[in-house]
Write the structure tokens for this entry.
Amino acid sequence: MSVGECYQKQTESDLSLIKSRCNYPSPPQRNSIAFWQLLLGLDNWQIKTIRISEMQVIDDHYGDIPGHEFVGVTIDNAIRCATIYHTRSIFEDDIIHELLHVRFQDWTEEEVVNSTNKLQKLDNPKSYIAELKPIYTFK
């Protein structure tokens, strides 16, 4: 796993090792999530955040040793719910990045990174979003 990856919904047993307290985002995070959620057309989605311990993250690039920073999202299209798991405070770029994974599920990591970087720099991100690839059809 690497920072910023997304995963389809896991089963409850898959998440047993990363169960932690579901923390409510701080007011600035809540406002940022609501802003980008609306802008990306995800206003009918529930977006949750859960802080996890770095010791719950295993990185296969480092010999499956636990203790790595992580920000990632799981997506459940059936109930339109996305959960952002994170080992550190999340910032606006993290929120944009993870919500882009939810909105454009067929995008590569590179496409998400490039769009995240561009959206952060724009005064009017709405016009850029309108030019993006056709909207993912939720099943």
